[in-house]
User: Which sequence fits this backbone?
């Protein structure tokens, strides 16, 4: 039986694709898959729920943090690498797959030093620090954007694993009323929560028949809903939710999606062939969300607005312009489909297994 260690995590953008890769290897190739992460990442909840074993190590941030935090992280790095060495001796993986995130670096470094085959998975247009460090030493890499190929040895353009439901959405009827989905991710997006209530009334007046579904994240659901009420927005034309349970359905209903530009969100938009207005999170490590959004915007698959220049007036103008232009939305949809890669999980699994045999 092939033993495979998947290292990394932290955010959903790392953990969810890693789980998809793990399921593909376990369910279709009978591999024994083990995860390594940190105590603070989403992997502590999602990996055991998916019935995978998880080992946690101490690792920390190096980007967008204080000097004290960087010093502490560097002090922890040898301990994390030693812990990964111990796990490699015990689990004896045939290959280590690094998916980025805090635990990826120590595990990949330990594997490279021990001569164990390594595969880097990079979902963003600009690689994270861990993958930039190991990029020239891995046996191969699976990437989502062509812009990323040059950062790695033996890189393959595979895309990001996305649930098959996103690829199977029916096309919206040309006669369907316009519908805007505002999606800020699991924690919501404060810029959307603060801005949309003040322009929603004017947007609904400008776009005949428009309805809005606004996902806020739990911390700001009540304050956002109160802001809509205080602004006098027609209560029957908007819906506020902290979380959205059935994202494929929500994407199917939308004629336009206002979203951040995390790698998983971008991949889901492409799979669903959805036009989008992307506002990258400016504090994302290495500004990778801006680079993700730029990659789509340059091909016409999306529009991008930088948060630093976003105002209520500019956002209202951009949303109104897009929602009133069905031809533009249709063109964006066609361009978005060019980024869709329905076989990503299978291709990444096959690439990993090919490294085991070489």
Assistant:
């Amino acid at each position: 039986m092939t033993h495979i260690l998947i290292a990394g995590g932290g955010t959903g953008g790392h953990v969810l694709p890693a789980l998809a890769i793990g399921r593909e290897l376990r369910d279709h190739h009978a591999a024994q898959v083990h995860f390594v992460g940190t105590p603070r990442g989403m992997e502590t909840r999602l990996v055991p729920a998916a019935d995978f074993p998880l080992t946690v190590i101490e690792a920390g941030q190096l980007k967008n943090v204080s000097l004290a935090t960087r010093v502490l992280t560097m002090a922890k790095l040898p301990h994390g690498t030693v812990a990964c060495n111990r796990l490699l001796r015990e689990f004896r993986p045939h290959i280590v797959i690094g998916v980025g995130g805090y635990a990826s670096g120590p595990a990949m470094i330990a594997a490279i030093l021990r001569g164990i085959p390594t595969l880097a998975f990079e979902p963003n247009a600009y690689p994270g620090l861990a993958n930039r460090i190991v990029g020239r030493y891995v046996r191969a890499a699976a990437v989502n954007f062509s812009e990323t190929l040059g950062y790695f040895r033996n890189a393959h353009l595979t895309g990001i694993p996305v649930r098959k439901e996103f690829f199977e959405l029916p096309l919206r009827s040309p006669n369907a009323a316009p519908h805007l989905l505002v999606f800020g991710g699991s924690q919501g997006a404060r810029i959307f929560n603060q801005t949309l209530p003040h322009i929603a009334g004017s947007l609904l007046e400008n776009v005949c028949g428009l309805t809005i579904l606004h996902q806020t994240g739990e911390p700001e659901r009540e304050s956002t809903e109160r802001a809509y009420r205080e602004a006098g927005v027609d209560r029957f034309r908007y819906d506020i939710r902290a979380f959205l349970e059935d994202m494929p359905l929500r994407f199917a209903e939308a004629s336009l999606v206002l979203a951040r530009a995390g790698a998983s969100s971008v991949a889901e938009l492409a799979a669903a062939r959805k036009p989008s207005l992307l506002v990258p999170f400016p504090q994302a490590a290495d500004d990778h969300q801006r680079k993700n959004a730029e990659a789509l915007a340059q091909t016409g698959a999306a529009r991008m607005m930088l948060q630093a220049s976003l105002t209520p007036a500019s956002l209202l103008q951009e949303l109104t312009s897009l929602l009133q232009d069905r031809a533009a939305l249709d063109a964006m949809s066609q361009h978005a489909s060019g980024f869709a890669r329905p076989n990503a999980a299978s291709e990444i699994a096959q690439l990993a297994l090919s490294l085991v045999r070489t």
